[in-house]
Each structure stands twice: as structure tokens, then as C-alpha cells.
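User: Can you model how manganese (II) ion sits in this protein?
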Amino acid sequence: MGKDLEIIRENCSQGDYYKIADIKNSHINKFIAKFIKILTPGSIFVCDDSKKDFDYIRQKALDDGEERKLNIEGHTVHFDGYYDQARDKERTKFLVPKGVYLGKNLNTIDKETGHKEILGFMKNIMHDKELYIMFFCLGPENSEFAIPAIQLTDSSYVAHSEILLYRPGYAEFKRRGDYKDYFQFVHSAGELKNAVSVNVDKRRIYMDTEDDIVYSVNTQYGGNTIGHKKLAMRLGINRASKEHWLTEHMFVLGVHGPNNRVTYFTGAFPSMCGKTSTAMIPGETIVGDDIAYLKKINKMVYAVNVEIGIFGIIQDINPDDDPIIWETITQPNEIIFSNILVKENGDAYWIGKPGEVPRKGINHSGEWYQGKKDEKGNEITSSHKNARFTVNLKNLRNIDKNYDNPDGVEVGGIIYGGRDPDTMVPVLEAYDWDHGIISMGASLESETTAATLGKTGVRKFNPMSNMDFLSIPVGKYVDINLKFGESLKNPPIIFSVNYFLKDKNGDFLNEKTDKRIWLKWMELRIHQEVEAVDIDIGFIPEYEDLKRLFEDILKKDYSRETYIEQFKLRVPENISKIDRITKIYKEVGPGVPDILFQILGDQKSRLEKLKQEKGDHISPLEF
Ligand code: SPV
Ligand code: MN
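Assistant: Here's the modeled complex, given as C-alpha cells:
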């Protein structure tokens, strides 16, 4: 027996030891042995994906207080600490070897220094805890998209969340034997008080793309801890960049067109900008809502959902706007609610839930009552803005039949969306791949939201909605996206959408349900079944087509005035946007492809000409 297995045997029960030994992977043995020595767990549990093992973790989450039962069967609630409610961008860093420069937009720390710091924090950190060792598969099993991944964590909540969010991977690891290119995650919630991480000042999330490993410590919030979510995404972007495919912050959705046709879209939206609710639109079918791998196969683009569950925003979920999510999370199903309010009778409450607003209950601040303030004098809301629900896709009645297809789904359209009050029209089609990647994806801007710590409502550059997750220089990432479109037989059509356009009074110009219409229109465009209007920054719908779609699908009258107000070309705003984006790309560092400046420059010239001829705001009827 090798020395690694020896260490594992000394620290595990016989049953747990054999679960690891049976995988017959020397790299896994080495990794586990190394971290047993660093973390020195009080006990170890190895999960082999059997129902018995999953049940053990579910029960542990209740026993150790990381979750509590709610009134409805299968529902539990988890609270993160008051200051641990969102992704901590400041303390999420890449460990970079000396001499490597990732550009100024990426948060980095010298690899040696960072390693020393985080492993210092992790030393003996599990001495009074159980270490859960879990195996997952990112993407469908037995597929060329699949990436096996291992998670070490001392949080039963994190372990339980991952059971809901990821495909089991123990069998995939066994099948691959001595395979070494899997992703690795090491997490500890650190010292707990009332089942909540206390040392948030020592919260760190450090990522090492060279060794495909992510460390996360002194935090519980899912976006900082659920290794296979945004942490794996950073490793995925790095790997994809070397192997000529894409890892994207995208949903995957089947849009149902005429004659039972299904056209698949992927869509990239920043956090809290309508990505999940688009992926859950009634009448369409969901493959995934957050992360996709895209590959070129036989000159076509195919996508899979990296995950198998949803970690979705719960605020404002109501039966009218999000009927399927509503139905799913108000019925008996296995669901973890996080950072909601628990009413005195054990019911879940979140801001925007229909019904009476409770006056008191339990939330992430402890006992809560209306008007409660935190130590800085800020009013504490009943549920947190970033409160979430975690559920497996199989609980949804709108799951697409290809959700687990190892070959993925063929992508017909790609959508980029942001939170933009005053510039982009509600839906716009790019002229071609390069134009879409540059003027829509790479130029995406969005107002900040409560999904990350810090001020909200600030307009930020967020290329492909992926800025927070890039692990390679921005310019290189844009270039890879451009190259991905080369040599495709039928490149997916690229669109942008904007659900957040506002009028002079600050009121939204669109209803939440309008997105259903934009999707149907895009689907028809892909099949060349409707005409469009060229407004010099791309194509928009013709009024008559929208009127018909609003009538057919929403049974609503769509007036010409509304169309003009929503789709008028805002010329000065569009020019300013191009100026902002051009300036950013001039400063981001090396590797920005020249074509970016050319496409943006040409678009600006067209806009300037239009401004001279037709003024600042131009009705779509004038084109
Ligand atoms: C997001 O913020 O984009 C999410 C949740 O999907 S998190 O896991 O925090 O990234
Ligand atoms: Mn996301």
C-alpha cells in the first residue's frame, strides 16, 4: 500500500477507506492524504452517491443546525452570516506564479504568498468537524463535455447543496481510473457560532488555475463555497481557453416554435438580471439556468448545462410572473431556502411573496421584527435581497427532454442581456458573429446588484456577463470568443436583450412577461420566418410581428406608440456607450483583437451620421 492510502486508512473508517481505494486513482489518494494532514478533521465521511450516503448528509445538515426544517415536506432553511450574504469579490483572488500578468481587471495574489496565507488559515481548521469527501461530474456523465470534480468541505449545507446542484460523479471517477485532470475544491466554513461562520474577516477564496484547485475558507454563502458553481467556472474558463471551447455564464433553453420545432438558445446575463426567470419562461423548456459548456462539433455549436439544479434568487417570486418556480418551491420538494424569513408558524417568507407582510420571524440577523436595524443603523429587510432557493432540475415540470443528453443540444441563438436603464433597445439582432460578440457580448454593461457585496445600481463593464469569473485576460477571452465562431457551418445568431429600459420618470418600459415575446421573435428570426428592421446597430422586430405575437401569446394589445417608445434608437446614449467601452479595451492590457476597435468605430460612425440626419432619438418607423 502506498503512503497516501496508508494515511487515508489511518484516518477513515474501513468502509470510507474502501470507497476511496476502490477508485484506484493515485492522484486522488495524494490529494486527499495531503489535505487530511493540513485540515486534521475530527472525522471523515466519503460519499459514494448511494441514497444512504445522501440521506446521511441531509440528516447531518439538520443535526448540526446548518439547516432547519420548514413547514412543507422536504423544505429546509439555511442562514449565512449577516456579513456573508453574497460573493466577496474583494477577497476572491487568483494565485498567480511570478511573472504572470492577467491584466488589471482580474484580482490576483502572488501564488506563494497566497498559498501560505490560505493554507495557514486552513491548518487544523477541521479538528472538531467532519470532513465530507464528495465526487461530482460537471456536465453529463459519459460525455465529451464531462469534467469530474472532487469537493472537500466541512459544511453539511455545502455538501447538501451540491447533491441538489450537480450530477453525482463517484461512478465517473471509478470509470476513469487513474485520471488526473479533474477539478479540486477545498472548503471550510471555519469556526462556527450558531452554525454560522464567525471569522469573516479571514474569509478568502483563492483559485489556482495552474493546479486546477480552489480554496475557500471562513464563509458559507453558496457563491463563495459551492465549489462547482462559480469556482469551477473560473477553472473551466481557463481550461476551455486552452482547448478551444467556451465556459460561459449562460442558461440553456429550448424555445418552442411553430410545428413542434424546438430551437435551443444560450443566454448570458449578469447575476440578478433575469437569467433564471428567462430560463423558466412558461411554454419553453429548461436545460440549465446558470453555467454552460459550449463546444464545436461537426462545425456546429453544442451546449450542455454544467449543473443539474438551480441556486436561484427568490425575491419577488410570485405565481403570476414566475408560475413554474412558484409552483415548485411552494410544494413538497427537496429545497434549501437560504436567507429568507421564517415566520413564527414555520412558513417561509420572502420580499415580494404575495400575502401579508410578517411583522416578525427569524432571518439571517437572528430574531427579526419590522424596523430592526443593524449596528450601522441600516434597516434590516425581512429576507435578504440575495436570498435564494436551491432545487434539482428534476423537480421542475418544464425540464427539457435533452437536459442530460451527453451530446448536448445544438445552439441556434445566443443572447446577451444586461441591466441597462437608458441605452439598448429591448431586443436586437447582430449582423453576424463578430458584430454580435463585439458590440453585444464584449460591450455588455450592467448595473451592479445584490449578488455581490458592495454598492448596487452602478453601471459596470461586464463582458459576456462573465467579468467576475474570468481567469484569463479580458482581451484574450474576447479573442477566443471570436475564434470560436470561425469555421462554423451555421453560426448561432447573436442577440442582445434589455429588460430594464426606463422612461423619464424612472418606470420600466416593459412588463416582465414581454421577454416571452422577444424569445418567440428570436426563434422565428433564426428560421428566417419574419423580416426585421435594420437600425444601423443591428436588426429589431417589425411592429406588425410584435403586435401579432403579443396578441397570440399574451392576449395583449401592443400599441404602435409603445413600440416606438421602446425601440427608438437612442443615438447619443449608444455613442457614449461605445466611447466607454473603447476606452476600457484600450486600457485592459494586452491581447485585445484589433477587430474590436474596428467594429466599434464603424458603429460609432454610422451613429454619428444618423444623428446629423435624424437627430438624437429616432423612431424605428423612420428606418
Ligand atoms: C450569480 O451570482 O451569478 C449566481 C449565484 O448564480 S453565485 O453562486 O453566487 O454565483
Ligand atoms: Mn450566476
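A couple of observations from the model: The CA atoms of residues 92 and 205 lie 5 Å apart. Residues 249, 271, 290 surround manganese (II) ion (ligand 2) (CB under 6 Å).
User: Helpful, thanks.
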